[in-house]
Amino acid sequence: MKTEKITSVIEFLNLVQNFENQDIAQWFFRGHGDSSFTLVPGLYRLNVSDTFSNWKDIEKYMMDSFKREALPYLKITPKSEEEWLTLAQHHGLPTRLLDWTESPLIALYFAVENYMNSKNANVWCFGVASTNNCKPQSTFIARRINTEISTCILLPNHISPRVTNQLGCFTIHDLPEDRKPFVPFDNQKSSHNSFRRILIKKQHKIKILNELYFLGIHKGLVYPGIDGITQKIKYEVTTEHSRNSKF
After folding, report:
1. How much is the pLDDT for 109?
2. What average pLDDT does this structure show over 16-37?
3. What distances in angstroms separate CA 133 from CA 10, 25, 101, 205, one per listed residue?
4. 18: DSSP letter
5. Would you call 106 exposed, middle or buried from its count of C-beta atoms within 10 A (0-12, 13-18, 19+)?
6. Signed CA dihedral, 14, 20, 25, 31: sign only
7. Is 178 a domain residue?
8. Domain residues for 38?
9. Per-residue pLDDT at 160 exceeds 80
10. Could you tell me the pTM of the whole model?
């Protein structure tokens, strides 16, 4: 797997725009504020050494509790287990889902959002093979239809504005037997998956965040609602950026 470095939004867009696409149905993206973070869902990061329960029992307990206790706060009641998992994931419950987005810029925002944590960041890029149309020229639907996307990517119903604005989607991962550790997604054997990783050094994060703000990618968009608006305004007031005087 290739790892490349970028220092600006332009470099990032030039890179992802030139990814191999003839044999790829679609690329999906995921930003990490800490480049050491691996492709392991939150559920499998839990320390369960003090229980004899398996992953299935642990997930059932957590989801049953969430469904019971979240009801008074729901504007829309999920209609399927996938919708419940989506809602739980978006509100911070550890699940077997991994968040992805169809937008490389949204993923880049998540990577550099916390520019004060003194960590290098990265963007993971996950390409699903096109098994339907590998011609040099093709429409988007011809590349995607009847591909592995339908089995490895969960495109959720838009039960939350966050899903809509973030162009959110998920990979959903099977439960390991008993309490066996989860193998990171990029290390799992598959002839259909392609991965690329883009590294952002910590000193470049604030510059890229400012560039994204200029392009309209900010907390007010990514986290729709009053909290996102207030954080966007706070960013505008407190965050310094270079002013280009060239003309």
Report:
1. 97
2. 91
3. 30, 8, 23, 38
4. T
5. buried
6. negative
7. yes
8. 2-238
9. no
10. 0.88
Query: Number of structural domains, the chain?
Result: 1
Does the residue 197 lie in any domain?
Answer: yes
Flag whether 243 is in a domain.
no
Question: Rounded to an integer, what distance in angstroms lies between the CA atom of residue 52 and that of residue 50?
Answer: 7
Cα 178 from Cα 188, distance rounded (Å): 18
Distance CA 39, CA 185 (A): 5
pLDDT value of residue 147 = 67
pLDDT over 90 at 163, yes or no: no
Q: 6 is written with which tokens?
A: 């970028």
Would 39 be classed as within a structural domain? Answer: yes
Express the helix, strand and coil content of the chain in percent, nearest 5 each.
40, 15, 45
List all residues 6 or more positions away from 71 whose beta carbon is below 8 Å from its beta carbon.
77
Which is more confident, 94 or 79?
94
pLDDT tens, position by position, 169-220: 999 998 888 888 899 998 887 657 789 999 999 999 999 999 999 999 999 9
Q: Looking at the chain, list the stretches that DSSP marks H as alpha helix, in order from N- to C-terminal side.
A: 9-17, 55-70, 81-90, 104-112, 140-144, 149-152, 161-165, 205-214, 219-222, 226-238
Alpha-carbon span 198 to 209, nearest angstrom: 16
Mean pLDDT over the full length of the chain: 88
Cα separations in angstroms, 112 against 85, 101, 213? 26, 15, 12
147 or 175: which carries more pLDDT confidence? 175
Beta carbons of 128 and 152 less than 8 angstroms apart? yes
